[in-house]
Amino acid sequence: MTDGTLVERVKEALRGAGQGNAGEGSVPAQLVQELLKVYSAQGEVVEAQQNVMLYIRGLIHDALADLMIVNSSLELLQGWIETRTHDPELTEIGVIGTTAVWRIDPLLGLVSAVCQGEMQELELNPTYASGFLGQYQAEWQHAFTTRLRSRRLNAQDYSLQISVPEQYFCVNCNNNGLYHVVQNLIYNAVDAFAEARLPRGTISIGAREQEVSTQQEISHGTLPAGNYVVISVSDDGPGISHDILSKIFEPGVTTKKGMGGSGMGLYMVRRMMIHHQGYVHVVTQATQEEGSKGGTTFELYLPLVTEFS
Ligand SMILES: Nc1ncnc2c1ncn2[C@@H]1O[C@H](COP(=O)(O)OP(=O)(O)OP(=O)(O)O)[C@@H](O)[C@H]1O
Ligand SMILES: [Mg+2]
Fold this sequence. Notes:
This protein is an alpha+beta fold and 309 residues long. It folds into 2 domains: 1-119; 125-303, 2-Layer Sandwich (Heat Shock Protein 90), CATH 3.30.565.10. Helices cover 51% and strands 18% of the residues. It has helices at residues 4-18, 29-85, 88-115, 129-150, 175-195, 242-245, 265-275; strands spanning 125-128, 158-162, 170-173, 201-212, 216-218, 221-223, 226-235, 279-285, 295-303. Helix 1 (4-18) packs antiparallel against helix 2 and helix 2 runs antiparallel to helix 3. The two termini are 32 Å apart. The structure holds adenosine-5'-triphosphate and magnesium ion. Adenosine-5'-triphosphate is lined by residues 65, 184, 188-189, 191-192, 235, 237-238, 240, 244, 248, 253-256, 261-267, 296. Adenosine-5'-triphosphate (ATP) binds next to helix 5 and helix 7.
């Protein structure tokens, strides 16, 4: 492994040597050039490695979504076997299957964490919203363009704008978990652009602090009074139709049957928000409504942490 600052210092020293001002025992200019080439090649290798890691994490995310379906199907099947057939052998086979799925799930999570370069449990840590958005913006941009490509949309016609707030709002969060929440919302927005065949589209991500003085009804539940940090993901896509809006957080609800959608994305989003003691509010406007401009905003309400310990 290389130390970034060390590499920079060595490069600087080599440049100095190449200009002949390194004093006694200076390195020949040609050797300096060669070494600089080696350093830049090394940088390219590291970048390529990071891209592969990001790609693997994307694949793992999809695999985990499928695994959840296998898991719930197996559980249903097991219940059916137990109540209908009372066959101990079949019950045993069911148990073997479900146990195997339970083993794979944390394994994939672990591989994903390793790809990210650090081992993470699902524990919550005090984090500045600005730091969180800043840390992941490059990865979300990458996920965004990859998703555009997979939906055969031209990257030049769509944009992802991430505004990192200047203020320091703190939340208790599992960075990896919340990263996936936002990524799911980005994927959904891109899919919506593709489904509606929109020629252009923009997704905007931001964060703000919000005081809620009295308990409020929100799109899918009740928001208790309190101080929150709200992370919002908005798109100017076609909006969510009224027939499914009330059910979007239920597992298996999807309008993308032919496009590989499993309807697990928002279910996972909700579960992760519950883990964070947070809430999700959805504001949506369908395009066809009075010819209006459509769009959807997912607001993630996370309790504000006032003391950064
Ligand atoms: N930003 C959005 N714009 C329009 N419709 C949306 C948006 N986000 C979600 N939806 C609708 O909600 C449904 C459920 O979303 P969810 O993420 O749970 O499942 P999915 O995207 O269909 O499949 P998966 O996420 O498992 O690949 C989608 O199929 C889509 O119809
Ligand atoms: Mg989805």
